[in-house]
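Residues determine shape. Take a concrete instance:
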Amino acid sequence: MSQLIRCSECGAVMNPATDARTYACEHCGAVQQVAIGTDQLAAGMRLDISNVEEFMHNLAAQLRHAMPDRAKVHHDGGQIILLELNLDPHLFITRREQHGGFTAQYKKLVRGVALKTKTVALDAWVQELTKAIADHANQNAHLAQVLAQLKRG
């Protein structure tokens, strides 16, 4: 991250931890967490859809590793035939078509029921996917930070 993060307690420049999301102040000891941007996430995941087969394999591997309880991947031989990521209320799905391409869909869920389903171009799907993952990570990080503060108080 190229911007300077200033301590909300004393105003000093904070130092990033190895995760690049947590910053610590050497002067007063304050710790602060910053949000993940979709551009950072896309760069970190090295998302490049110019080779769709390689892209799908890399994306599936990263999602299974990062969110094994939310990612579902089905293979047929060495080919991915279905990739699903459930970030309730968002469900992202890609399916291999018979001609070899992929259909990308987004579903809006309410209590597990799809209220709205959109079929979109793969590049638009990737943009929406990275935005939803970043939002999910930031919300969970914020919740974890609030809970940690409650435990201290």
Remarks:
- The first strand starts at residue 15 and ends at 16.
- Residues 122-152 form the longest helix (31 residues).
